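Quick log. Single chain, no ligands specified.
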Amino acid sequence: MPNRINEKIRGLKEVRLIGDNLEQGIYTFDDAIRLADDLGLDLVEISPNAEPPVCRIVDYQKFLYQQKKREKEQKANANKIIVKEIRFGPQTDEHDFNFKLKHAQEFLKEGNKVKAYVAFKGRSILFKDQGEELLARFAKALEELAKVDFRPRLEGKRMIMFLSPKKKA
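-> predicted structure:
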């Protein structure tokens, strides 16, 4: 919601005024508008729900620029969640299992989530229990680095399990 400025702020008797080069405090609305005009700046409503509402005397274009800049910085600093996939077959060999386990450990150390799944082809769907055991063994091997978001579950011809990195204490 954009901030209201100058005459667009209506129905206020008094406002709490903040800003540079002025005495901060509670002013009548008319005094606040007059003060902003004298300084050649705008009266911008910052917090309309406060009692009394908070307004700032500032150059509105500069205020918008700083606000956009702040939002852009927050967006850049936000964590981006990356999900890495690791695919198994129901009869995955021990060497392949260990190879994929090493990759999963690297992914988790980097802070990424891991989606491990067993892909069943044709009649291999009969070996659901082997797929579940494989994913349980995988989760057990990674329990120091990751927590299981949800237990293995069958979705079509895939048995899927998500792991996310544990928070460092």
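The domain at 83-165 is CATH 3.30.110.10 (Translation Initiation Factor IF3).
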